[in-house]
Amino acid sequence: MNSARDPRVAVVGAGLGGLTCARVLQIHGRPVTVFEREASPDVRSQGGTLDMHADTGQAALRTAGLYDRFRALARPEGQEWRTLDPATAALLQHELPADGDEDRPEIDRGQLRGVILESLTAGTVRWDRAVSGVTPLGDGTCRLNFSDGTTEDFDLVIGADGAWSRVRPALSDATPDYTGVTFVEIGIDDVDVRHADFARLVGNGTMVAKAGAKALFAQRNSNGHIRGYAAFRAPQDWQVTAGLDLDDTEAVRTHLLKTLDGWDERLLHLLRYNDGGFIGRPLFALPVPHIWEHVPGITLLGDAAHLMPPLGLGANLAMLDGTELATALVTEPDVDDAVRAYESIMLLRSAEAARQCAQGLEHLMPPDEPQSGGATGSHQPALQQR
Predict the structure, then answer these.
(1) Which candidate, 143, 131, 164, places its Cα nearest to that of 34?
(2) How confident is the model over 69-108, as pLDDT tens digits?
(3) Which H or E run includes 125?
(4) Between helices 16-27 and 314-331, what is the axis angle to 10°?
C-alpha cells in the first residue's frame, strides 16, 4: 500500500475467521489487533468437530502457512458417515472415506483455534475487551467503542464477532432470524471405555438417525469424546411451553425421551447416559442474501456477514473470508480498494452458500412432514457447532 504508515487494522472477535485474517496480515508484516470480549482463550468450550474442505478451509490454512500443523491434528477417518434406522438402529447407509481421501478431514474446533492462536505474535489478541459498537468518522476511518466507555480509532474495523455482531449495525439493519429448528447438545466422555457399544454405533465420524423433522446426531471428537444433538422443529421458546428449565437435566432428559418415544434404545443411549447437562442451541440465520452498501473503514467476515445453518460451510467460509480480506489488504493500493475487492467476491459467494444451507436444512428437517424413518440421501451435510 502506498502510504506513509501501515493502516491501523482492528479485528473484532477471536474466532477462526478473525484469527486467520490476523495471521495472514502478520505473515506479510502488517500490524493488526484482535479484540475479544471473552477473558481468556479457555474460558469456555469452543464447540465440536469441523470438517475442513479442501477448496475453502484447507486452502485458507495453506495461505496462512498452517496446513502442516492442521494435518498433524486432523482426522481423515472422521469423514465416515453412518445413517441408522431410528426404530431398529439398523445401518441404512454407510459412507467410508477412500484410502488417501482427505477432502474433508475433521478437527476439533478448539484444536484448530489453538493452532491459529499459537501462530500469532504475543499480545495480538486483547482479551476481555468487549466492543459495544462502531462509529464511522466520515473520513474513511472508524471508532471502536468499548463496553468500558473507552474508544480507539482505526483505518479499518473488521467485524468477525459472530451471529450477534456488535459491528454489523454500522453496515446493516439485518438481524438473525430463528430457523424453526432447535438442537439440544449432548456429550459423552470416555466412550471407547465406558460406552463401547455406542461408540461402535457412531463409528469414526458422524452418525444420524432421522424420522421426519426429528433427528439424533452423534459426532466423534478427539480424546474419546462424542458430541451429540437432538434436533427437532419447535417454537424458539419450546422449553417454556413444555414447562422445562434447561438446567434441570433429568426433566429435559425425560422430555427428550418422550419426544423420541419408540426409537431404538441403542440410539437413546446418547440421551440416557450423557455427561453433564443439556444445552439448547436454537439455529438462527441472516436473511439471504445479506448485502450492504459499502462503508469506508468497516467490513464483516464469517457469521457476522453470512450466518447460516451449521451444515458444514460456516467455519470454512469464515477462514476463507479472513485470508482473502488479508490478502487484498496487502496487495491492493489502499484499504478502501482492498475492502471493495473483498466484498465483491465474498457477498456473492456467501449468498449462494447461504441458499444451499437453507435448502439443506429444509431437506434435513422438513417442516410439517409426517414422521417416518429411512435414509436421508448420500453425501450428507456435516454439522458444525458454532
Answers:
(1) 131
(2) 999 999 999 999 999 999 999 999 999 999 888 899 999 9
(3) strand 125-126
(4) 30
303 annotated ligand binder: yes
Per DSSP bridges, beta strands 214-220 and 206-211 are: antiparallel
Q: Which residue has the cell 470438517?
A: 51
> If pLDDT is split at 50, 70 and 90, which confidence band does 314 have?
very high
Number of other CB atoms surrounding residue 304 within 10 Å:
30
51 is in an annotated binding site: yes
Q: What's the rounded Cα separation, in Å, for the pair 194 and 185?
A: 20
Let me know: does 278 contact 253? Beta carbons within 8 Å. yes
Q: Cell numbers 462509529 correspond to what residue?
A: 135
CA pair distance 81, 205, nearest whole angstrom: 6
**CA 313 to chain CA centroid, nearest Å:** 8
Residues 255, 128: Cα–Cα separation, whole Å: 37
CATH topology of domain 177-284: D-Amino Acid Oxidase; Chain A, domain 2 (3.30.9)
110 within 8 A of 45, measured Cβ to Cβ: yes
Average pLDDT of span 273-283: 94
Buried b (16+ CB within 10 A) or exposed e, 311-341: bbbbbbbbbbbbbbbbbbbeebeebeebbeb
Pair type for strands 206-211 and 81-84: parallel
Q: Where are the domains of the chain?
A: 9-79+103-175+286-364, 177-284
Please, which residues have CB within 8 angstroms of residue 187's CB and are 6 or more apart in sequence?
225, 226, 227, 228, 274, 275, 276
Max intra-chain CA distance, the chain: 70
Say which amino acid occupies 193. Answer: V
Please state which CATH class domain 9-79+103-175+286-364 belongs to. alpha beta
Which pLDDT score, from 0 to 100, does residue 384 have?
57
* Residue 350, H or E segment: helix 335-364
Tell whether residue 143 is among the known ligand binding residues. no
In this prediction the pTM is 0.93
